[in-house]
Design a protein that fits this description.
The structure is a homodimer of 381-residue chains. By secondary structure, chain A is of the alpha/beta class. Helices cover 45% and strands 11% of the residues of chain A. In chain A, the strands form 2 sheets. A 7-stranded mixed sheet of chain A has the order 1-9-8-7-4-2-3, with helices on both faces.
Chain lengths: 381, 381
C-alpha cells in the first residue's frame, strides 16, 4: 500500500534530469536521505536508478575487486546474495553463518575477525533486516567489531530503513543501501544509498559503468550526464520522505513496533508461533511457523485471491483504472492488520486448523486499543 | 511530455512483482515489446529495471568478457560510451570512427571487418540513433556485414525504437536495448531489451548479478525472484505500448518524419542549418548549428525558463500538484513544434540574430497544414 499523496506526486509533469527546476528537488532528496540514514557530514547520498538489488551491487562494485577480503555474515537468503555478488566481483569471501531464524551472535563475528587478525578483512558485509527469516541482526555491535579490526561495513537496510532505527554515523556504518518500496513507502524502482567519506576513501575502481560511484557523483553532485534519472520516481521518493518527516522518524519506528506487537499478540492467540525469538524479531516482516498439516502456499493464495482482493485490490486490470483504490497507506496499518488476522483465521479454519474463533482479532484489537491505535487509525493526519 | 493516459496508469494500485494478478500484464508487455522490436521467435524480451544505460550494460555484461573482440562503430558520445563499457568488461576493442554529425559509411565497417578476417570479431557494437549529433546510422547494412563475418551485433536504439523503423529480425540484430522516456512515451526508469536466440547461444557468464540475463529470465519467464520489478513503471510502459499500437507503429514513424520535415522547413526559413546532411538525419533529435556570435547555452536557458515554463510547465513545485498539466503528449507534437519555433525566434532576435519575423513558424505551419497535421492536432484520438 502506497500513500495516495505519493501516488499523486508521480503525476507531476516530467522534468528533465538536468532541468534547473528539477535540481532543487534532487538536493532536497539528498538532504532528507542524509537525515533518514543519519549519515555523517560529507557522505554522498543518492538513490541508485534500480531496485534494492541495484543498490547492493552498486556498493559492492565500488568496494570489492579481485582479491578484496570480505567477511560475510549470513543468516538468510539476502546474506547468501551478498556472498554471491561479492564472489562475482572476485572477492575472497569468508563467512560467519548464523542459524536461519536467529540473529547472528556478535561473538561469532568477533571470533572470525580475531582469527583473521586486524587488517586482514577489508569489508564486513551484513544484512540488517533479513527479509527471508524476519530477523534483525545486531549491526551496531558488528560494525563496532569491524571498526576495531579496521574493516569497512557494507550493510543492507532494505527492510529496516524508515521503520527500524538505522544510524549510519552513530553505528559507524560505511556503505549502506536500501529500497523505496518497503519501509520508505514509495513504489519500487530506486535504491537509496549512504556512501560515507571513509567508504569513499577506500573505494576501488568500479568495473561497472552504471554502478560507478564517481560517475554517479558526477550526476548527483556535479550535474554532469551519466544516465537519465527518472524524475517521476524521484517525485515519489521525495513525497514519501516528506510524509515520513511529517510523521517523525521516531514516531514511525514506534508505530511499527506497536503494530508488530499487536500482530504477534493476535497470532499467538490463534495458537501460532513466530520463527525468530522475541528479541530477534523484525517489526516489518513477521515470519510465522506453519502449523502441521497446513499447505502454506495454498493459504497465502486464498488470502490474496479470495479475501484481500475483494476488499482492497479491485480492480484487477492495471492500466485501466484512473485512481488508486483503498485508503491512505500511512493510516492504514491498524485496520489492515485486523483484516489480515480475520482472513488468516478464516482460511486456516477452512483448512482444518483448530483455534478459538475471533481470538486473534480480539487480542490484536485489545493491544491496538490499549495504545490508542484503533481510534487514531481512521483519522486524517 | 508524457501522455495523460500513461501518467494515470501509474496511479494503479501497486501489485507485487510476483502477484498472480500482475503476471498477465507482464506477459502482455513482453508480447508488445516483441512486436515493437520486430524480434524473432524465441527472443527473450524484457525491460531492465533501470535507465537506457542499464540496458546498455546488461547487453554488454552478457556478451563481453576478458578478451572478447569488439568492433565499435563510433559517431558520437554514445558510441564512445559503448567503447568505454566494453573496455570495463575487458573487451579488446577496435574502432571504426565516423565523422561526428555524419552517418558512418558502411564501407568503413566492411574494411575493418575484412582486415580482421571472418571470425576475428565477436561483437559489432553500434548506436542506431546517435543522440549527441542527431544522426541515424545505417544499422541494417552494418548488421549484414557483421553477419557475413560471423559477428553478433549489439545495438543501441534508445532514440529510435518507436519513432524510426527498427527491425530486429529483418535486419538480423542480436542484442538490442532502448529506453522508455524517449520514443516509447513513458517516464524514465526501464530499459526494454531484445535478446535473440543467437545472442543467447553466444552469451558469456555475467560478472554482474543485477544484469545477469539468466537470472533476469528466471524472473521474467520462470517467475523466480531476482529483484523487485517496479509494477508502477510496468503499468506506464504497458500503457505507452498500448497507445503506440493503437496509433500504429508505421503511423507513428510517419508522424515523426513529417514533424521533423516541418521543423527543418521552419529552421531553414529562419536561416538556420542542421548539423547532419538531410539523408543522415534523425526524426527524433534535430541538431541545429549555432549561428556565429550566439551563446547557445543562454538561448536554451531562456527558452526553457522564460517561454516554455510559462505556457506548459507550471507549476514548478513537483509533488505539490495533483494532476499533470498540459494537453495529451501524443496529440501535442505539432502545436509544440510551432511554439518552439516561435520561442526560438524570439530569443534569437533578442540576442541580435537577424531573421524575417514569423518566417520560421509560417514555413513549418505550411508544411504541417499540407499534411493535414494542424487540423488533426487538436482533436482527441
Amino acid at each position: 500500500m502506497i500513500a495516495a499523496r505519493v501516488m499523486r506526486a508521480m503525476a507531476t509533469p516530467v522534468f528533465g534530469h538536468l532541468d534547473p527546476a528539477f535540481i532543487p528537488l534532487l538536493d532536497d532528496v539528498r538532504e532528507r536521505l542524509k537525515r533518514l540514514f543519519q549519515a555523517p557530514e560529507g557522505s554522498f547520498m543518492f538513490a541508485m536508478s534500480g531496485t534494492g538489488t541495484s543498490g547492493m551491487e552498486a556498493t559492492i562494485a565500488n568496494l570489492v575487486r579481485d582479491g578484496t577480503r570480505v567477511l560475510a555474515v549470513v543468516t538468510g537468503y539476502f546474506g547468501e546474495q551478498l556472498v554471491e555478488m561479492c564472489r562475482r566481483y572476485r572477492a575472497t569471501v569468508s563467512r560467519v553463518d548464523g542459524e536461519w531464524g536467529r540473529a547472528v551472535d556478535p561473538e561469532a563475528v568477533r571470533v572470525a575477525l580475531r582469527t583473521s587478525g586486524t587488517g586482514a578483512i577489508d569489508v564486513v558485509a551484513c544484512v540488517h533486516a533479513e527479509t527471508s527469516t524476519g530477523v534483525l541482526n545486531p549491526i551496531r555491535e558488528i560494525a563496532a567489531l569491524a571498526r576495531e579490526h579496521d574493516a569497512l561495513t557494507l550493510v543492507d537496510v532494505v527492510t529496516s530503513l524508515g521503520r527500524h532505527p538505522v544510524d549510519v554515523k552513530g553505528w559507524a556504518l560505511d556503505a549502506v543501501y536500501s529500497c523505496t518500496q518497503k519501509c520508505i513507502g514509495a513504489p519500487s524502482g530506486m535504491s537509496p544509498v549512504a556512501w560515507t567519506p571513509l567508504a569513499h576513501s577506500r573505494r576501488v575502481a568500479s568495473r561497472s559503468f552504471y554502478f560507478d560511484i564517481t560517475l554517479l557523483e558526477d550526476y548527483w553532485v556535479r550535474r554532469k550526464y551519466h544516465h537519465t534519472l527518472s524524475s517521476t520516481l524521484i517525485y515519489a521518493l521525495h513525497e514519501a520522505l516528506v510524509a515520513l518527516e511529517e510523521e517523525g522518524l521516531e514516531n514511525r519506528w514506534e508505530r511499527h513496533r506497536r503494530h508488530h506487537l499487536a500482530l504477534v499478540r493476535g497470532l499467538e492467540a490463534m495458537g501460532l508461533h513466530l520463527l525468530p525469538p522475541a528479541a530477534d524479531r523484525l517489526w516489518t516482516v513477521n515470519a510465522v511457523r506453519v502449523p502441521p498439516g497446513i499447505d502454506e502456499a495454498a493459504i497465502r493464495r486464498r488470502i490474496v485471491d479470495r479475501i484481500l482482493d475483494r476488499n482492497w485490490r479491485r480492480p484487477r486490470s492495471p492500466g485501466r483504472q484512473d485512481l488508486a483504490g483503498g485508503p491512505d497507506g500511512i493510516q492504514f496499518d491498524a485496520p489492515l492488520l485486523l483484516l489480515f488476522l480475520s482472513a488468516l483465521e478464516h482460511v486456516l479454519r477452512t483448512a482444518g486448523y483448530k483455534c478459538i474463533p475471533g481470538a486473534g482479532v480480539s487480542a490484536a484489537s485489545d493491544a491496538l486499543a490499549s495504545e490508542g491505535e484503533i481510534e487514531r487509525a481512521g483519522q486524517p493526519s
